[in-house]
Structure formats: C-alpha cells, structure tokens
Amino acid sequence: MATRKNATGRFGSAAASMLLATAGVTLAVLQRALEAERLRTRRLELEETVSRRRALAHQQRMHWELLSRAIDDPSLASVIDTYDPAIPADKRRQYFYANAWYINLYHLYRAGLLDREELYGHARELFQNPLMREYWDASRGQRATLKQSSDEARIGLLVDTLINDLDEADTDEWWVVGTPPTP
C-alpha cells in the first residue's frame, strides 16, 4: 500500500507540474496575442491619423484653390460673397485673402503642426493688421453659424478674446498682450 500511495503521489505531482507548465505556456501565448493586438490597434490609429492629416492637407489645398479663383475673378467671388453689399469689390477681395490667411492658420492647428499656444501667438501677430481686423468683424455673421462646440467656433472665440485684449491694452508691445492658452 505504501508503494501505491507513493506512486500516486508521484503521478499526481507530475500531473500538477504538467498542468502548471501548460498553464504557463498558455499564459505566455495569451500575453503575446494581447501585445500583438495592442500593436495592431496602435498601427491602425497611426494610419488613421496619417489619413486624417492627408485629408486636411487636401482640404486646405482645395480651399486655397477655390479662394484664389474667387480673388482673381469677381464673377466667381459673387458665389461665396456673404459680406455687406456696400463693401467695395477690392475690399471684399482683401477679405477673401485675409480669410485664406486665417484658414491657413486654422489648418496648421487642426493638422497638429501648431498647438493652441502657438496658434495664439501667430493670431496675435496676424491680427495686428487693420485689414485682418476688418475682415474678422465683417465675417462675424459667418462665425455665428458655427456649432459652438466645434473647434472652429472655439478658435473663433479665442481670436475674439485676443482682439478684445489687444484693443484694451495700454501698451504698444502687442506681443505681450493677452493670456495664451495653456496646452
């Protein structure tokens, strides 16, 4: 009987060892599969980011091309002209060009090439120009149609606040006016 108990103990111990070894191998296989899935998910996220940036770059090129045509040809400009009809044609062309500069800045931000603080610094410089401020004021109605939670509306509000700060500043050192947003 002692032999039977001893043999059973050895076989039980061997079975438990095999079971633990199999479980260890299975756990390692599961960990490798999870890591492979994480890497696949990350690769897909990166591909989506690249695709989005390409789409944004394409959109910016299209916007510029369409706007250039409107600047060059007043008959085409009338298709997108929502400014006050009393504004002279030359001034509207300047507004279209100002819009191109603003949208370029906005697309740089959207593409992730500028953060909000950098966008603010560029906007602070851009809106030193009186024509840019006239354009901004003339396009207020266009911005009013934006969904308030959109990036474009939030950036518009940032520029509105910046222009207000610049107007109220007691200094000629415009590069220090306002409070840049934190990242």
Separation, N- and C-terminal Cα atoms:
77 Å
Q: Count of helices?
A: 7
Largest sheet: none
Element string (H = helix, E = strand)? HHHHHHH
Task: Name the poorly predicted regions.
Answer: none
Strand content: under 5%
| Number of beta strands | 0
SS class: mainly alpha
> Helicity, in percent?
over 70%
Q: Please, what is the average pLDDT?
A: 85
Sum up the overall morphology in one term: elongated
Radius of gyration: 31 Å
What is the compact description of this entry?
This protein is mostly helical and 183 residues long. It has seven helices and no strands.
Task: Characterise this structure.
With 183 residues, this protein is mainly α. The chain is built from seven helices and no strands. The longest helix has 71 residues, at 2-72. The protein starts with a helix and ends in a 15-residue tail after the last helix. The model has no long low-confidence stretch (mean pLDDT 85).
